[in-house]
Amino acid sequence: MPSCTDYCREKLIEACVTARGDGYAFLSNEIIEHEIDPQSKQDFLDSIATVPQEAFANPHNIRSRWVSYGYVDYVNGKLWIDHPSHNAKSGTTFSQYNLMPDTNPELAGVNRQYEPMPLKVRENACFKKLVYLGYLMSPVHAGDSDNPALQRFQAHLICFTPREGIDSVATPDAFHQDDDFVFCVYLLERNNVEGGVNYFAPLDCSGMSLKDAYPKVLCEKTLLNPFSAYTVNDRIVSHYVSSIASRGDGAARSILILSFKPMKVDDVVSSKTGIGISRRLSSASESLMVEKDAVGLKPW
Ligand SMILES: [Fe+2]
Question: What is the pTM of this model?
Answer without folding.
Answer: 0.84
